Amino acid sequence: MNTAEASRMPRWWPRSMASRIYVIIFTGLLLAQGLSFGSMFYERYQSATTVMLNTLEHDVGTSVAVLDRLPAAERPQWLPRLQRDNYRFILGPGDQGRPLVSARSRDVTGLIAKEVGPAFQVHGATTSVSPERYQVHLTLHDGSPLTLEVTPRGVPVADWLPFVLIVQVVVLLACAWIAVRQATRPLARLARAAEGLTPAVDNPRLAEDGPTEVAHAAVAFNAMQDRIGRYLKERLHILASISHDLQTPITRMRLRAESLGDSSARDRILDDLREMEHLVREGVAYARSAHGGEEAPVRIDPAAFIESLVFDYQDSGQPVTLVGGIHGVCLARPRALRRVLGNLVDNAIKYGGSAEIGGSQDARDGLYITVSDRGPGIPEDELDEVLQPFYRLEASRNRDTGGAGLGLAIATQLMRSIGGNLTLANREGGGLVATVVLPGAR
C-alpha cells in the first residue's frame, strides 16, 4: 500500500493484512450470531405472547365466573389463588383515569370482554405507573367493581444463557484467529523469503507443501530463485570467459608496445592496456560479488575486526582513526566485509585525505559501521547513482582518479549478498559518511 492509499484509510482501520482479515471475519461472524440470536429471541417472544393471549382470556373468564358466584365476604380469600405472574385481581374500581394507549392492551381487553360477555361491562384504563401496565375493569352481577391489573413481563431468560453467549463469542474469536493465522502464515513466510532473497546461489528454498494455492506460490518462488541463480551463473561465466580470452591479446599488445622505442605513444599505449586489464579484473570482481564468493557467513566480534583493520592502515602510515566503540556479535563474511570497508576507507583517503571508522549496535537492526571523511562529498541527487555499476562523477572521469566506476557497486553487491546494506550520506560540516549495516547474530 502506498502513502496515498494509506492516507485515505480511517485511522482505526488496522494496517496489517492479518488484522484486517481478523476484523472482517470476526465482525461477520458476530453479526451473523447476533442476527440469529435476535431472530430466535423475537420468534420466542412472539410465541410466548401468542400463548399468553390464548390462555389469558380463558383463565380470566374462569376466574371472573368464580368470583361472581362467591359471596362478597369470601372473595378476598380467593384473590391470591387466582393471581398469576402477569396479572392479579383487585376488588374495587381501580385506576379509571387514562385510556388504553397500546394495541396489545386494547386487544387483551377486547378478548376478555368477548370471553366474559357484555354483562360484566368490560373496559380498560392505563395506570399511572407505566404505559405498558394497564387495568381491565369489570362489574359483577351484584354490582361490585372488579379490576384486573395486567403487568406484562418480558420473555424469561435462563441464568445460563449469558454464559453460553460468552462462550460462543470466545469460540468465534478463536476460530477467526486460527483461520487468519492459517491464511496469512504462508504469505508471511513468502514475504520473509522475498526479503531475504539475495543474488547468492545458496538461498534457502520454500517448503512446497500446504494448501494448493500456497504450494503453487512456493513452487513459483523456488523456480524464480533457480532462474535468477542460472542467470547469475551465466553472467559470471561470460565475464570470466571474456576476461580469460582478453588476457592473451592484451599480453601480446603489451609485449609489442614494450618493443617500441621510448616515446610518448608507447607510454600511452601501455597506460591504455593497464586500464583495459583493470576494467576486466573489476568486471569479473563485480560479477563474483553477487555471490559473495565461496565464503560462509560466520559470527564475528565487530570491535576486534574493525580495530584490526584500522591498525593495518595505521601501520602502513595511512591517516585512519577509530571513533566510538562497538559491542556485541554480528553475522558476516569476514573477507567480503574487509573488502567493502577497505574500498570505503581507500575512497575516503583518496578524496578526503583521511578516514574515520565508527560503529554502533542496534538490537533490532543489527550492526552499523560508518566510514567518514572530510572530502568534497557527493551531490544529493547522485548519492544513489554512484552505487550503480560503471557510474562515475563528472569531476572524476580521468585516468588518475576516475577508476572503472565499479568499486562502490562491488561493495554494495557484496553487502546485499550477505544480507546487509550500504548507504551514502553527506556529512554535516562537509564530507561523506558511508554506512554499512550488518545483521546481528541471533
From TrEMBL:
Residues 181-233 form the HAMP domain. SMART domains: HAMP, HATPase_c, HisKA. InterPro entries: 2C_sensor_his_kinase, HAMP_dom, HATPase_C_sf, HATPase_dom, His_kinase_dom, HisK_dim/P_dom, HisK_dim/P_sf, Sig_transdc_His_kin-like_C. It is found in: Cell inner membrane. It is a multi-pass membrane protein. It catalyses: ATP + protein L-histidine = ADP + protein N-phospho-L-histidine. Pfam families: HAMP, HATPase_c, HisKA. The chain crosses the membrane at residues 21-42, 160-180. Keywords: ATP-binding, Cell inner membrane, Cell membrane, Kinase, Membrane, Nucleotide-binding, Phosphoprotein, Transferase, Transmembrane, Transmembrane helix, Two-component regulatory system. Its EC number is 2.7.13.3. Residues 241-442 form the Histidine kinase domain. One of its GO terms (molecular function) is kinase activity. This is histidine kinase. It comes from Luteibacter jiangsuensis.
